[in-house]
Amino acid sequence: MILVDSSVWIDHLNNVATEPVRRLRELIPSIPLLIGDLIMCEVLQGLRSEREARLVERGLRRFEAVSLLDPELAVQAAANYRLLRSRGHTIRKTIDIIIGTFCIARGHVLLHDDRDFEPMVQFLGLQTI
Predict the structure, then answer these.
(1) Domain that holds residue 89
(2) 15-22, Cβ contacts within 8 angstroms, sequence gap of 24 or more
(3) Residue 73 within any structural domain of the chain
(4) At residue 90, what are phi and psi to the nearest 5 degrees?
(5) For residue 3, what is the DSSP state?
(6) pLDDT tens-digit map of 67-108
């Protein structure tokens, strides 16, 4: 399955023309996508009105919602963070290491537009499109 990061959803909603947004728009009608609970939170918290938030939430609920963290994944995410930091790559946002670790542990592919995921690809085997 493909998990879509908030970086892509936000650009999609703002109609920003990027390669990841183009890929997302190709995938929406043809492939089941995942939306993470924390990703949904990130997307919805940036909206300006309750009306807009309800509309976007309804649209996001078309996709399978998954919880991105449990106690075991929390421990693994922290270990991944330390490993990357020891190799000279400090991940800027905790949520990104959680998302990357979730995808690695569950065998999902990540669609993103965020440079924090690149060290996870290089050193942890994160699969991206």
Answers:
(1) 2-124
(2) 18/113, 19/113, 20/111, 20/112, 20/113, 21/113
(3) yes
(4) -95, 120
(5) E
(6) 999 999 999 999 999 999 999 999 999 999 999 999 999 999
